[in-house]
Amino acid sequence: MTQTKVQLRKKMPYIRHNDGVFPADNSHPEDQHLTFKPASNKFSRHRSLRGKVRIAGHFVHVEYVWLAVVEWLLSIAIYSSMDSLLNNAPAVSFLSVKGAVFSTMVVLSLTAMGLYNARQRNGLLDVFIHILIAVVLCAVTMLTLNKVLAEASWSYINIAIGVSVLASSLMIVRTLFERFVDGQVLRRNVLVLGTGKRAKRIEQLRRKADRRGFKLMGFLPTKSCQHCYVNPDKLLKLNSICEYALDHQVDEVVIALDDRRQGLPVNDLLDCRMSGIDVTDDLDFFEREASVIQLDLIQSGWLIRSGGFTNNFLSYFLKRMVDIVVAVVLGILFLPVMVLTALAIMIECGRKAPVFYTQVRVGRGGSEFTIYKFRSMCQDAEADGVAKWALNGDQRITRVGRFIRKYRIDEIPQIWNVLAGDMSLVGPRPERKEFVSSLCQLNEFYADRHRMAPGLTGWAQLCYPYGASEKDAIEKLKYDLYYIKNHGILLDLYILIQTVEIVLFKKGSR
């Protein structure tokens, strides 16, 4: 490959980089030539189709994007074929509006069942059950729409056949995806610069869900690396980072140095950038791959320099409008459930027993508000006046309370908090003021959760099990900060849709 030389200016003692401005390596004279190899067009063009991509602020696995496209096309093909066969149409129309609506509903239902969630750990049998529920839900919805619109609909036998064919076809696609694609192709090749504790954190990403988007090629020691905390077998000693990266089709170099004040190979990293290879900070890498903000890796100024953490009137207005509309719809839909729940509580605890439970929580800007829930514990649950975490198998929970907590029915009255503006549909869960004080002392970033309105559900609720300790609260903070940094209407809708699986399959309830 032809090498191209770029002459650095003699009067430029600094080189600009993503993390700031760094002094040039003193071991090299100012008039040194910097050599780099331009990446081939093929290499540069296909690199963006691997790993994860940012869609509306949120990082999504490319392989799941392609899977959704394939399942959308498969759904519309099966629907259009069945409709054409039953209506004796001469040809299959793949541009059918009803077919497109149905296939879109299939993809949304699969999303609601968590089947595009990278943390999904279900076996093939559970996947098939999730697929069947999603397809049946779509079929019932389409049948209801046909009745409302007074359109000719399929017979129940034909609907059963269509559901069976579609569910079986989707299961075949999922089996092939699991066998040949999932976590095996479309990954980014990654080199890690550093061998210290920060580099060790990347090596500790061993689960399939965490490594689905990248392949770790090895670790590169520098002059500042005094200790090696990573596997010595993965160490690479290279004369030229860029040459190795181009020869081995490396997509990205991640800077994970414990001390960046010395030994940073600025020229080598600039070689990589000029050759089409990404150079990424380890915090940005964790944000992309694990969908968290690593609290112990945050450097001063990163929260300000990095993208996200923005809020303007338009985004606030749209979020508020969605909150109001959805809260009104949910209030109407769940009205019968609320009436039955109130009756069940009165039957178990007596007519004079309070049905609702109020509690002071901390909201946006640290302001306090009263949250409303169906009472799920006995009246003297905290008779001593000491705030306690809800534990697994907590004896304070009543029989009705155990049921409504499993399906999150006790949270339904918080719809009023959403309408009142104290809460949003999506956001960090509001915490009791007694716990907030101690948690803010444990971690300085905990107060940043209150930069947005708390929510009925949130990113932490999807990704982390029920938290019942200060340690769990700090772990969930990583996900809450990720949401605050990347929040948007599409991410909110994705969280709301996927909350269906959390409620339906009682995940994270206690």
Q: Which parts are unreliable, with pLDDT below 50 for 5 consecutive residues or more?
A: 1-36, 38-45
Distance between the termini: 61 Å
Order of strands in the sheet with the most strands? 8-7-9-10
Structural class: alpha/beta
Task: Give the arrangement of secondary structure elements.
Elements (H helix, E strand, L loop, with lengths): L3 E4 L6 E4 L2 E4 L9 E4 L4 H7 L4 E4 L2 E4 H25 L10 H16 L11 H25 L7 H26 L6 E6 L3 H7 L4 H4 L2 E7 L20 H7 L4 E4 L10 H9 L3 E4 H9 L11 H4 L7 H21 L1 H15 L6 E7 L5 E7 L24 H8 L7 H7 L3 E3 L4 E2 H10 L12 E3 L1 H5 L6 H17 L2 H16 L6
Parallel strand pairs: 7-8, 7-9, 9-10, 13-15
Antiparallel strand pairs: 1-4, 2-3, 5-6, 11-12, 11-14
Helix pairs in contact: 2-3, 2-5, 3-4, 3-19, 4-5, 12-15, 13-14
